[in-house]
Amino acid sequence: MKNKITIHLPAVSPLLSYWSIVILSLCFVNNYDGDFVFDDVEAIVNNNDVYDTTIWEIFKNDFWGTKLSHKQSHKSYRPFTILSFRLHFWLRQDLISQDYHIINIMLHSINSLLTLFIYNLVLGPKGQKISFYAAALFAVHPIHTEAVSGIVGRAELLCTSFTWLSILLYNCVIHAKSAFHTWIAMSGSVICITIAMLCKETGITAIGICAIYDIVIVNKLYPIDIINLLLFKHSNTNLNSFINYRNTVLRLITLVFITIILLFLRFSIMGFSTPKFQPVDNPASFMDSIFFRILNYNYIYCLNIWLLICPVWLCFDWSMGCVSLITGYDYRIFVIIIFWLLFGALIMYTFILRKDKTLRYIIMGLAILIFPFLPASNIFFNVGFVLAERILYIPSAGYCLLVTIGLHKFFVRFFLPKAVVLTYIILILLLFTRSWMRSGQWRNEKLLFQSALDVCPLNAKVHYNIAKNAADAGNINLAKLEYQEALRLNPNYTQAMNNLGNLLRDDGQLLKATSLFKQAINLQKDFATAWMNLGIVQSSLKQYKESETSYFTALQHRPNYPDCYYNLGILYLEQKQYDKALKAWINATKQKPTHKRAWTNMILLLDDLDKTEEALRMANKALQFISDHAAIYFNIANILGKKGKYEEAEIQFKLAISRNPVDPMVYANLGVLYHRWNKLNAAKQMYKKALQLKPDLSSAKDNLQRLYTLRTLIK
């Protein structure tokens, strides 16, 4: 049987097709100058691996910067993705979100082109028209917004790039002319698969796609041939040639061997343990009934397919009420039945028929759709999410191929070849517009979180994030209301309790805050942040012994916790236990050398204890880590000024001003220095500058008045 596809689509030249794909892939450029949002903050902004730790430490930590051995680690091992973030910081010496967004958009354009090459490889020269239309669909699909517009989606983008490269190199293995070229190409393919897996765990599924490509496309085998072999029926010529073809068997054995090695290495890195998730992360996984657990998993599969078909309802997070559990009779069961009837029919179609000209391409589309989705399917292990749009980035390539083949076959069968072009144009325009709009919603957290309310108004996490964003913007009343709504929807939401407790503490409602913190730690015993915040409130209530116990409990659950050591130092300072306070702050700066408040407090305390030389040594040590912190120069200047070293103090004050030119206290204290130095005109200028910045600064007002009185007396 010849491998041909009857094409009724306009031909597009290779050069034009490449440029068209690149232009279409820019549908996400609406977010090129967006902020760090949602998971970007934890994975990049608050992750020391991105800018601080040694390179080797990156290979010991998970994606979020937590030690893989830590019990709270998600075991998401993606060091190459973190290294790409680290490269940005190394080049710019700063975290500039625009850089990250632009690279993500460029990676999507590259992936769209690579997807076109993969389609060309699968469909062959006769199917390159379909390849272009399928790749165009992939380039504009809105399901990719989270992966492209969310910076942490870099993991999916890099994984996809190396997955496609591994398949292209595997094709070189198949067509290599010598053993040397075969070995080079196979080595390159294995390296790409390994890199893909170190960017995102799903990279290992490239092996399955390579195997299906070898069996179905290269060796032209069909599932029915395999079934006949298993049933000991007469095998056809293709199957005989496959079995007798030593190189093919060796390639497949090599793929199996590589799979075993990579899986062993991956599980050894995890310590042969799986991550521990909370019921709110994936409620279906915690259901007692196996039947309802499987039923809910299947409903989630339906939702994933629906998002590919109709990407209108998109949300940054699908947990906590977005998808309610099926616990009894529910109309959604019929959705599952319809899904499996349709999908099962497609699977049966691939297993029973053998004469269809496009059957092998449909099998490849299914392989690309299913294999990369398997790690997120809850079949092999539980995952930490209900539904995540980013995981559909690679599977969508299989979906786009299937849709393009299906639409083309439909219009050809019903003698509507011209209608297929119009359908594609309308579909591409609609998807491009939707992607442009959706990427704009990822520009900042306010837009992103508000957009989720239309999709998941019952999602407690959406309300939690709106509250968090409102609190950061200073809208405390809205933040309180949204935290309360999150707790109404999910009464066991410990993070919401903790954050609401902090707002109540700042508002002086200490007893209510204490109640919330205690409720949070009763629900989650190892919630170190809640333990620390409870300690802060207890300290404010003068419950010093209880406060110290809470801080120690927090440190027991999270030994590397510089903020907790800082607050422990504050507790000791209030009790006038100065040695203990200094030790606590020293621990804080050891764990976090850039902890500005801990350094500042140590310098001030040493100065108050008349240990000025030690205070100056501490300040100079602090400048090794926080050379741009104005408060350090300010404190050094004050110490030198009290010692009568006016010239040296003046230099330090000016250094402080260069770091923070809008701090009125620096000008006021510099005015005092000039006043003592008898440089009265300079002192007058500094006092006036301080009052310009803060008209109600009493110290500057009083000192300026004394200066006028002194000048009057002199006259």
List keywords for this structure.
elongated; 68% helix; 715 residues; Serine Threonine Protein Phosphatase 5, Tetratricopeptide repeat; 34 helices; mainly alpha
Structural class: mainly alpha
Give the terminus-to-terminus CA distance. 113 Å
Count up the helices.
Answer: 34
Rg measurement, Å: 32 Å
- Overall spatial form: elongated
What's the number of extended β-strand segments? 0
- What's the number of domains? 2
What is the makeup of the main sheet? none
Proportion of residues in β-strands: under 5%
Fraction of helical residues: 55-70%
Mean pLDDT across every amino acid position:
90
Low-pLDDT segments: none
Give your account of this protein's structure.
The structure is a single chain. This protein is mostly helical and 715 residues long. The chain folds into two domains: 15-272 and 283-439, no CATH class; 628-715, Serine Threonine Protein Phosphatase 5, Tetratricopeptide repeat (Alpha Horseshoe), CATH 1.25.40. Helix content is 68%, strand content 0%. The chain is built from 34 helices and no strands. It has helices spanning 14-25, 39-45, 55-58, 79-92, 97-123, 128-140, 145-149, 154-174, 179-199, 206-218, 223-230, 237-244, 246-269, 290-309, 332-352, 359-370, 395-413, 417-440, 445-455, 460-472, 476-489, 494-506, 510-523, 528-540, 544-557, 562-574, 578-591, 596-608, 612-623, 630-642, 646-659, 664-677, 680-693, 698-714. Helix 1 (14-25) packs parallel to helix 6 (128-140). The longest helix is centred in the first third of the chain and has 27 residues, at 97-123. The chain is elongated and about 110 Å long. 43% of the residues are buried. The model has no long low-confidence stretch (mean pLDDT 90). One of its GO terms (molecular function) is dolichyl-phosphate-mannose-protein mannosyltransferase activity. Belongs to the TMTC family. TPR repeats lie at residues 460-493, 494-527, 528-561, 562-595, 630-663, 664-697. The chain crosses the membrane at residues 12-32, 100-122, 182-199, 211-232, 252-273, 294-314, 334-352, 359-381, 419-437. It comes from Lasius platythorax.
